[in-house]
Design a protein that fits this description.
Elements lengths: L3 H5 L4 E2 L6 H4 L2 E4 L2 E4 L2 E2 L22 E2 L3 H9 L11 E3 L11 H14 L5 E6 L5 H8 L5 E8 L12 H14 L4 E6 L10 H11 L4 E4 L6 H9 L17 H10 L5 E2 L2 H9 L19 H10 L5 H10 L9 E2 L4 E3 L4 H11 L3 E3 L18
Parallel strand pairs: 1-5, 3-6, 6-7, 7-8, 8-9, 9-10, 10-11, 13-14
Antiparallel strand pairs: 2-3, 4-5, 12-13
Length: about 375
């Protein structure tokens, strides 16, 4: 259950010295860019949270690892940071950025980046309360391309998600009434077959989409740690097996798209962000045509204009920069770069630098599955 006292805290404590190294390393590279997480700990208890994977789910009160000024300085000096190019996420791994106390640090971090003149895309994901005064402060930013992604699922089983979806609904409505420069996305996730994929849930999502610049939908991240947590909570297995990638069966996707016909809806986060700002997708998904077959024509034209097959020498230069070992195994096609033996950080840095998809052969992207798990697509 949600820890009320932790929610009321107006300030965050200093992180303990024995914080796991997986959390003390507060900058890492993910698909949506450099992820800055110098606050860890969250009382919201969403059962499917990735905090299960970082030995952090039991920490209910937010803790500060380093001051905001230090965190920002380390971010912009990170080897992978490129001014005006590298996408940035803030507090997306181990807390909610709009919790009382945490949002003070969110604003300071954003303002520190903005005051330096950076125009990078910045993604902030929340399922908590956004107040009109919060939006007023965010609207004062002048450089960053800021997107607020409001997570909503419609799940009412408190064992899975104890936070009422009405909170996210209210936040989206506040953004719709007062945000202009700041873009807002209905982040419809996780969609779980047999749980929150009814006609009633779809109708609610369609109504909420009217308050957003775009809707992004996705499935469940179902690792062993998350399945074990649900089993201990008495939740029957949500799927037949665990998976490395998010699970969203073909049948569920088909019904989502049918229900949202005529509304801007996207399979990928960066696609929704790009549409909201009227820019090209920084992940270069345009090369994988079946991902883009639901995108508005106007967005496809923007992405097509910026989609250019990279020169092999440019790819090799980036591969050397990230210390990719097998340079001879790199191949460049019209839709993707293929590499061997890469980490996610290596691939995603190259992908954002090139604005072009980079895949590892050991983890192939099956056609029409859109980078999702095999469950429901066999």
């Amino acid at each position: 259950m949600v820890k009320i006292e932790a929610l009321k805290a107006k300030s965050v404590r200093r992180a303990p010295d024995d914080l796991p190294s997986s959390l003390r390393n507060y900058i890492d590279y993910r698909k949506s860019g450099l992820s800055l997480n110098h606050i860890v700990g969250c009382p919201l208890d969403c059962g499917y949270c990735v905090r299960h994977l970082f030995d952090n789910f039991a920490m209910k009160r937010p803790h500060l690892i380093v001051d905001d000024e230090i965190a920002v300085e380390q971010l912009v000096r990170h080897w992978a940071f490129r001014a005006d190019t590298t996408p940035i996420q803030i507090f997306n791994r181990a807390t909610d950025p709009f919790l009382p106390g945490v949002k003070t640090h969110l604003f300071r971090t954003l303002e520190a980046l903005d005051s330096r003149g950076f125009r990078n895309p910045v993604l902030v994901i929340t399922r908590w309360k956004i107040e009109p005064t919060d939006v007023e402060r965010l609207e004062a930013l002048t450089n960053l391309k800021l997107t607020i992604l409001v997570t909503w699922s419609g799940i009412d089983d408190e064992r899975i998600e104890p936070v009422s979806s009405a909170i996210a609904e209210g936040s989206l409505e506040v953004l719709a009434s007062s945000a202009s420069r700041v873009k807002k996305i209905l982040y419809w996730r996780p969609i779980i077959s047999g749980l929150n994929d009814t006609a009633e849930h779809f109708a609610a999502a369609r109504r909420l989409a009217e308050f957003a610049d775009a809707t992004v939908f996705t499935g469940l991240f179902y690792r062993e740690e998350i399945r074990s947590y649900f089993r201990e909570a008495g939740v029957p297995d949500l799927y037949s097996d665990i998976a490395r990638r998010k699970i969203l069966p073909r049948e569920a996707e088909g019904r989502v798209l049918e229900y949202f016909e005529g509304r801007p809806i996207f399979r990928k986060t960066s696609c929704g962000v790009a549409f909201s700002h009227g820019i090209a997708d920084f992940n270069g998904h345009f090369g994988i045509s079946e991902i883009c077959d639901i995108c508005p024509e106007t967005q496809c034209k923007i992405c097509e204009k910026h989609h250019q097959k990279p020169d092999l020498e440019a790819v090799l230069s980036l591969a050397r920069l990230v210390s990719l070992v097998d340079l001879d195994g790199i191949e460049v096609s019209d839709c993707r770069v293929e590499v061997n033996g890469s980490t996610e950080a290596q691939r995603y840095f190259m992908q954002h630098a090139l604005n072009f998809q980079v895949h590892d052969r050991a983890q192939p992207h099956r056609k029409h599955r859109h980078g999702r798990a095999e469950i429901g697509w066999e």
